[in-house]
Design a protein that fits this description.
Structural class: alpha/beta
Distance between the termini: 17 Å
Shape: globular
Largest sheet: 8 strands, mixed
Strand order of the largest sheet: 3-4-2-1-5-6-8-7
Radius of gyration: 21 Å
Oligomer: single chain
Length: 364
Amino acid sequence: MNLLNFDIFCRVVDNYGDAGVCWRLARQLAALGHGARLWIDDLSVLARLEPGIDPARDLQSAHGVQVGAWPAAEQAQAPERGVVIEAFACALPSRYAATMATRGCLWINLEYLSAESWVEGCHGLPSLQANGVPKYFYFPGFTPATGGLLREPDLAARRRQAQARDRRERLRALTGLPVDGLPAPGRVMLLFCYPDAPWAGLQAALAQREEDTWLLVPGAVPPGLNSRGSLRVLPIPFVPQTRFDELLWCCDLNFVRGEDSLVRALWARTPLVWQIYRQADDAHLDKLDAWLDRARWPEPARALTLAWNRRDDEGVRRALTQALAPDAWRAWQSRCDDWSRELSDRPDLVHDLLDFCQNHLQKS
């Protein structure tokens, strides 16, 4: 396979999600030997994900990726016979876009992740743009007819290696929590959610359980969410992207938000609850229903996910209690493991994308 040069453009809209996807994609391309430049409009967000990034520097590099502030891209040229990725329809800088017609590059719009069936028919379709260059729509997804999911080749091996070590020691190394305070027979859960999540229902369900639960909350704990009954709420440091998987692998149940965190939680092969990014007129609920149809969670887990995204505290309390009952919990664990294995058997997004790019550049 020929090595290619990639320019990836990202505007930060969804907290860390947009930057997270683009940074993970750029790092994987660079790790395979391809040239990768990431142009981003908020370096401070990227710096939270990658501590090696300096928000004050317009041009720098980390993990083999060249990183540039968005305004600097106005003076850059598209890579000759390379690939330009416009993440999530962010719109390219005008001067940069004007150079593309004479550079023979491939233009791709990397779309948001969706489980809706219509994306299969749109994946890979071109649309001629004003500068005369066709833009191809690339849809990540959960079926062979889409562009796949981001996954590193050694991810499963790293997970097995990590989980072979004592969980208490792993958590102490990641978070600084005292090892002797962890409940050996209890559960550890991660709460990574948007501010409007119905955490009161979560708190009510976990506080009344017989077994202890440690609820790990990255950053600030929502006001009013506190330890009570058998629930212990613990703030933890915000971990960089390169260590986020390790945190997920420490937990029995992961509450995650956005796109990048969802995919990483899927690869953890343990139960998860996804908070999808909220859209006007509740359009996000249709996308959530499509995803749940493919996930095929047991009914209590499906009800919990719906209640979590509808901000239904009582629904969350009731459904979480049911989902954690022994038989329902085992069924949820089994389905999560099965689906993760099914998805792992398919090509990952980066290799699918590289095949797509090579084929189109050879034809042009």
